[in-house]
Amino acid sequence: MSDHPVAAAPHRLSEPRLLIPLALFALYVIWGSTYLGIRYALESYPPFLLASVRFVCAGTALYGFLRLRGIAPPTPLQWRNAAFTGLLLLGFGNGLVCFAEERVSSGIAAVAVASMPLFAALFSGMYGEWPNRRESIGLAIGFAGVIVLNLGSSLSGSRFGALALLVAAMCWAFGSAWSRRREMPPGPMNTAAQMLCASVALLIFGFASGEHFPAHPTARATLAVVYLAVFGSLIAFSAYLYVLKHARPALSTSYAYVNPPVAVLFGVLLAGEHIGPYDLAGMSIILLGVLVITLAKQKRAH
Fold first, then answer.
1. pLDDT tens profile 39-50
2. Model's pTM, two decimal places?
3. 296 belongs to a structural domain
């Protein structure tokens, strides 16, 4: 009889109601820090090869670990779906963000990336899953907060870079909506398969566009690549795919509103950047929007 509580504990720890908040916390904090990580990595590594190295290292390590544990490889259909989703999310989504961060201000990057939940709501609606009224209000509040956040920032930059960020947000949103309705590899194998497939596409495109690996990268740039691979890819991307499977689209994409203020805070703490009244006001509004989305999700669950 004493075995029953012990046996039940792992089950409780694996419940979505416990894991979703933990996964969202990882997305909010870790992906908020990757903007600074990409900046540091770009000091030595070109954008598309940077993304390729990040994903091939993380994907190979995770795939090898899963296979050693006896996890079955994806089926041909699962590989196809993972390749298409990985190309959209990681190839276009992350690759174009790396490309754009060489050309545009962080203000444009934050606004463009924060448009992703709006695209996600549109694409999910095309599949019959429109956000409810409270989620729509939360989405609108969050986007308004990002605009306020950037009123005090310089929005000057390359129009081509800004367009790249917009395409990145659209591709990430469509890939997220599309993959929710397809047979994907189970659990962490989905993460590994998407990263491996995306890394090949990024490597080919990087070399085709004339990029080369640096002969003498700086220590800070290389450490940034390691951080992006371990925390940004292995941990946070796995968390995102989990939330995407178990939560409403509005909640699973809410990280895009939280990442800009988190990126600002990391810039203040680690890079000595200045934070002004617009930054504080924008962060407050963004957090309010996320709170509305979260409460809407909880009410729907009840």
1. 899 999 999 999
2. 0.80
3. yes
